[in-house]
Request: fold
Amino acid sequence: MSTDASNEVRVAAVAAATRATRAAGAETPAGGGQPAPAGRRRLLTERNRPLWMLIPGGVLMIVIIVLPLLLGIYMSVLNLDQYTLRKWISAPFIGVDNFVEALTASPLLHAVWLSVSYSLIAMLVTLPLGIAAAVATQNAFRGRAVVRSIFLIPYVLPSFVVATVWRIMFQPEGVVDKALGTIGIHAGLWLNGPQTFWTLILVQIWASWPFIYLLALSGLQAVDHEVHEASALDGALWWNKLRFVIFPYLKGPLSLAFLIGMLHHINNFTLPFVLFGIPAPSDVEVLPILTYVTSFQSFRFGLSAAMAFISLILIAIPLFIYLRAVKLDDAETPGGKK
Amino acid sequence: MTTSTALRTPPEPALTRPGSRRQAEVTRLLPGPLLAVILVLLGALVLVPVVYIFLASVNSDLGVARGEFWPSSFSLGNYSTIWSSVGLAGGLANSVLVAGATAVVSAALAVSTAFVLVRYNFRGRLTILRGLLGLQSVPGTLMVLPVFVLFSSAFTYLGVQVIGTQWGLFVTYLTFAMPFSTWVMVTYLRGLPRELEEAARIDGASNLGVLFKIILPLSWPGIVVSGIFAFLLGWNDVLFASVMTRPGSQTAAVALQTFTVSQEGGTIPYYGQMMAAALVCAAPVVVLYLIFQRYLVGGLTAGGVK
Reply:
């Protein structure tokens, strides 16, 4: 899942994905280094396939994901509120009215704008932070293991914990205001009013830069020793070496991180929900919050389903690119279409 | 996408050889002073808030409200009162129960599903693999309402009470953990050599025999990782838990929110207690990470070397 599926889950997804893409190339030296004869590499295709093992997982996914997904789409064309919900099967059919209302008479477009801009700004700040952290901890030094563990703290903490503690820190007269006050800045309200948008971005940055860091680190590890030697021989200055030699290695992992990070930010429900509570200030009414409020505060279930459907289309864009980028299969699979 | 990383040398032991200073000089990426500045800034970015959380958790509510960084009075009292002011203990117990069950069952299902997906060829295999990736990104806010309606219908039409029970949460988390857990196992099992399985088959092992006697013992690290991520998914979820639980079945994530809700009456909120409770909620996750750090981050830091 994704919603508030925390960063952690994402990172490993990337780990798995990167490994999968690598496996495609690095498959050959499986055992003793000699490629096995072609016949052995074939998957078992005999009759005796234990396909029944797919049933439990398959049933779960059909009942809890596919069925509700279809149900959600169906609900988006119904006039569904707290009175008709009990007997939703016989709720009045109103066609595209929910969609029309969502697009013209609801804060949906504003929410889309908020979601996209907040995700993008947070991403643009976390990228350099993560890269700097990865580059700084790539070379061995005394205490590096400790530093790496420290960098991972925000990534380890559950989202709801992060949001709770920042909520307290951003209280009026709280520790953030006090600290800023000592250097003469009076920032105003963090948890109410227009500044909430930036509060959300700040906390999101704090929570998600280690994700970029991990991905950048995995990219750096792909740099061969010979590459370092070559650039040392050429007498490259550190900046030129980073710029022209090292950064190209980061392009792959970081574009993946960008896609998945954007998906995660856009889907992030926990952070705004816990940070600002419900009802959220209108400047942080991002898509997940708006969808949630429309369902469980205004009880406009049909409208909410339409909003959810529209946000699914928005998410489908990065998702589609991501799915295209990840190789599903390793090279050895027969019939595996590439 | 990362084809350039396909070929790699194993992590070179060069750094530990004599003359390693030369080696370190060659691989060095940043000049010393800049390195120090980056480390200090990023370290402070993380540590200042984290240290503050610890300090605030032993501070008084009033002290936190006044914005004290260094508490004017230290007391561990918050850590004892959190258990009585809201249902945190019950919440933690429910979280452990639901997330733990999710972890175990999803890891078990993931390994058997991945086994079939990796080792057998059949129609629809690629579709399933693609689906596993795609389903990971279905937004929860899209799913929560229909799942809620589905579960309520189970009561209306079948007489089965799902909403408000731990079962409902368990089934939901299990399902949402499955695509990812399975994907982890798929990538892990791909890395296992086939020779052992083939030998076992020649000796007459059945499919189940291969799964239990060969695959399971070899894939513990992968199973642990997929189980832990399923656990984290259940532990960290707020969305489904806030909609589908009743006070008796609420998880720690929801219980923590009740500190805020119960305190909007004009008095000073239990800030100190909230900090303590937040740390308690984070503790199991942090402990899991510390124990399994090597496996969890290993896939990345070791760069896919198995």
Q: What stands out?
A: The two ends of chain B are 21 Å apart (CA to CA). The first helix of chain B runs from residue 20 to 27. Chain B touches chain A through 133 residues (CB under 8 Å). The CA atoms of residues 241 and 251 of chain B lie 7 Å apart.
